[in-house]
Design brief:
Order of helices and strands: EEEEEEEEEEEEEEHEEEEEEEEEEEEEEH
Oligomer: single chain
Strand content: 25-35%
Shape: elongated
Structural class: mainly beta
Distance between the termini: 141 Å
Strand order of the largest sheet: 3-4-5-6
Radius of gyration: 46 Å
Length: 483
């Protein structure tokens, strides 16, 4: 573990010695991912030791430990404690048995694990696996840290904890069915009572139904634990789950049954609970060939399917369920490939997120906690700003999305000239109403000058202006009078 710039070994045993080998949860491998192996604040780490394989898997059961507060606690309590210690008045005569970590609450307050050992006085003595809840908030020396929840059976694949509520009051798990015809069933534990909510078939469908419950890709539980959604191949037995026959040509399973999405409401029917299939064909006909439904889709990256993110296929209040399926669940879904769907558990309304008409598949990816934003990928250009047919991420948003920009289409030919203006009518000249002195008169051209001859030897022609009588009289006056 790394904290505040310091790297420490977390796999420390209660006596202070390092474990010969250790792994968080059930082991950090690509196929075994376990919830909350580290508390949200990082103070508690739950690990198994010693490991049974060199690759870090916990294929077999091991002892379960909790490392608290980086080993620096000063309360006098052990900073590493073993969780699968017996609290029985009389020890189990079948000797000590190891444990398997399944889940914990986000704050690390409760830890859920199974062991074949009877660790409490009310746990039956048998070789079957039993489910326990450990309270980490109590002192290590407290004799009542453990609560026995249920005996979950002895199947070859083992039991599986599907999910827990944030406060640890609800626990969903699989185990031996009370009806032997069903084989394995799904249970919910609450207020000290465990009840069966549906069978999931025999051993032929256990792999995808239960084995993958060891990784939380197929189960979602609301924070309060009252609702759960899960994916299972189920069974062809009409007495199991909701009675829907999941037989179809889906070769991913051992029995060619198709995976479907189921929703459970623990508060329905006066607290008796209700299970429903949200992805099953509404016509009650078996699924179409290859019509596996689900909500965990991982895009390939090179040679690997890389994704460690657990999406929100169920809104926090349990109202909205999101999934993908190639099955035609609505008349508007006409493309015969996968589409993204939303199911409203309050109104019972099923609706498409993708168009349902494009020839390429679409997949649900993620949703906001309140379910008002659902994200899916599609090749279809659903908006004008999407210029290609590559996979793109879209947000289906309650009350609409963003305003689309206005795109002007390019013009060609006569369309580029614009609109033709109207022909103007006859207009009265503006000068018609003008009042003024009128146009000026054209001036007369001046008369040519008059020429006269002077007498004398050398006669020359002189040209002079013809003066009027007034002009002559004024000129003589200026020169001293007339001569």
């Amino acid at each position: 573990e790394w904290a505040d710039g310091t790297v420490r070994l977390a796999g420390i045993l209660p006596d202070g010695s390092p474990a010969p080998s250790s792994g968080a949860g059930q082991g950090a491998t690509a196929f075994i991912y376990t919830h909350n192996a580290i508390s949200q604040n990082g103070s508690k780490v739950f690990f198994a030791a010693p490991l049974s394989t060199p690759k870090g898997e916990v294929e077999d059961e091991a002892d379960l430990y909790m490392r608290d507060d980086h080993g620096t606690a000063t309360s006098g309590d052990d900073t590493t404690r073993q969780l699968n210690l017996s609290e029985r008045t009389e020890p189990d005569p079948n000797t000590t048995q190891a444990a398997r970590f399944w889940d914990a609450t986000p704050d690390g307050g409760y830890v859920f694990f199974t062991s074949r050992e009877a660790l409490t006085d009310d746990a039956p003595i048998s070789t079957a696996a039993k489910l326990y809840r450990y309270d980490t908030e109590r002192p290590a020396a407290d004799p009542h840290n453990l609560t026995y929840l249920a005996t979950v059976g002895d199947d070859e694949f083992g039991p599986g904890v599907a999910g827990v509520s944030d406060d640890g009051s609800y626990v969903y798990f699989s185990g031996a069915s009370s009806d032997s015809a069903s084989g394995v069933a799904i249970f919910v534990w609450h207020d000290g009572v465990a009840r069966q909510i549906g069978g999931v078939g025999g051993s032929d469908t256990l792999y995808l139904s239960l084995r993958q419950w060891k990784q939380p890709i197929n189960v979602r539980v609301t924070p309060d634990g009252t609702r759960m959604v899960f994916v299972t191949e189920g069974t062809t037995d009409p007495d199991d789950l909701t009675g829907y026959d999941q037989a179809g040509n889906c070769p991913s399973g051992d029995a060619l049954v198709c995976a479907e999405v189921y929703f459970y409401d623990a508060t329905a029917n006066g607290g008796a609970g209700e299970l429903s299939c949200v992805s099953c064909n509404p016509a009650a006909t078996p699924p179409a060939p290859g019509a596996d439904a689900g909500f965990a889709y991982r895009f390939p990256s090179g040679q690997n399917n890389t994704s460690s993110h657990i999406n929100r296929a169920l809104s926090s209040d349990g109202r909205y369920v999101f999934f993908s399926t190639p099955e035609r669940l609505l008349d508007s879904d006409t493309n015969g490939v996968s589409d993204a769907y939303q199911y409203d558990t309050v109104s019972g309304e099923l609706s498409l997120l993708s168009s349902g008409t494009n020839s390429s598949p679409s997949y649900f990816i993620e949703a906001s906690p309140d379910g008002r934003n659902a994200f899916f990928v599609t090749r279809e250009p659903l908006l004008g700003r999407d210029p290609d047919t590559a996979f793109d991420l879209y947000d289906a948003r309650v009350d609409g999305g963003f305003v689309e920009p206005v795109v002007q289409a390019p013009c060609s030919g006569d369309a580029c000239r614009g609109a033709v203006s109207a022909v103007p009518g006859a207009v009265t000249p503006a000068s018609a109403g003008l009042v003024g002195p009128g146009n000026p008169k054209r001036p007369k051209p001046p008369k040519p000058p008059r020429c006269r001859k002077h007498e004398g030897k050398h006669q020359k022609k002189h040209c002079t202006k013809k003066h009027s009588q007034r002009s002559a009289t004024r000129a003589n006056r200026n020169h001293g009078g007339e001569k």
